[in-house]
Amino acid sequence: MSDSATTPPRKPDESQVTSATPEEGAPLPQITTKQAAKINAPIRGMVISMAVLLMLILPFLWLAPKPDAQPYRADVNVSEEAGFVAEQAEFTPAAPELGENWTANYARWEANSQDGVPTWSVGYLSPDYRLVEMVQTAESNPTWLAQRTELIPVTDQKDLGGISWDIHHRDPSGKQEEFTAWVGTLDDSTVILTGKATEGEFEHVAKTLAEGR
Q1: pLDDT at 13 exceeding the cut of 60
Q2: Which of 59, 102, 152, 168 could form a cystine bridge with 98, CB 3.0-4.6 A?
Q3: Segment Disordered: which positions (predicted)?
């Protein structure tokens, strides 16, 4: 028989065979007390930091004033501002006293406006928090009026306190919002009232304007 005859395959040594899965009953890894302390230290530090932060914030939350249920109202002194404007304007700036619970959010004089028309503007807030803006000028022109009334034609007219008011109104439709403008002529100027107030609130402002002429 020749030396080249095949020999049976060698049986692998059992010591070299490894199992694909851990042997049943293998001991679980153990950690020391010091190792456990190191693992838990960051968590304890985070909890302590959060507790300290809450202790610092809570007193401020308890002492902070409770928010008012009503929105903030500015209370501009329109008469005082009108007195300053009177030194620059070519007309008498209107400053109607609208009565209790009416306030003014702003009052400003624009001598060099973008449209070239010097204006005195006051934003009045009604008791029900609806805004009526009053704009006054001595240099009104058709272009300025068209812009201020959004090209809406006259839809109504009212005579209040000796002033004739042209009313421009548009109902909301599609992408256009409701719009209202009252245009009146005083002795030395033109006044426009705009806003989303009720008809009664517009009338109140218009009548008070007439009384203060």
Answers
A1: no
A2: 102
A3: 1-32
Here the tokens at position 99 are 């009565």
Side chain identity at 44, as an amino acid letter? Answer: R
Question: Residue 96's CB: how many other CB atoms inside 10 A?
Answer: 23
At 81, which amino acid appears? E
pLDDT at 206: 97
Residue whose pair of structure tokens reads 């300290």 in the numeric block: 52
Overall average pLDDT of the 51-77 stretch: 70
Which residues are CB-neighbours of 74 under 8 A, at least 6 positions away? 103, 104, 105, 106
**Nearest alpha-carbon partner for 182 in 134, 138, 147:** 134
pTM for the full model? 0.67
Lowest-pLDDT range of 4-13, 58-67, 184-193:
4-13
What pLDDT, on a 0 to 100 scale, did the predictor assign at position 15? 47
Q: Report the SS3 class of residue 61.
A: helix
**Tell me: the pLDDT tens digits for 95-134?**
999 998 999 999 999 998 888 999 999 999 999 999 999 9
Q: Write out the E strands in 49-96.
A: none
